[in-house]
Write a structure and sequence with these properties.
By secondary structure, this protein is mainly α. The chain has one domain. It is built from three helices and two strands. A two-stranded antiparallel ribbon has the order 1-2. The longest helix has 23 residues. The radius of gyration is 17 Å and the shape is globular. The termini are far apart.
Length: 79
Amino acid sequence: MSGMLTSPLILKGAKAICEAVQENPRHIGLLVESEGLPAWRRTEADPWRARPEALQEWVRGQEEKYLAVQKGVNQCPSI
């Protein structure tokens, strides 16, 4: 069947989103607020939603951010 989607356009729920990015679903609000996780809800009572492509970009950004931090920490100071 041509034209059928092979992956969802939206992940729905903290569990599905956090499984995709290997994070704890209990921390989704903190990740959205402090780490810029690209997830949203229409109201406080609604489930979290996120686009898989946006989550992939976020993971790449996290990788770059924390690899840079590690490189800075692991560099020997010049004497």
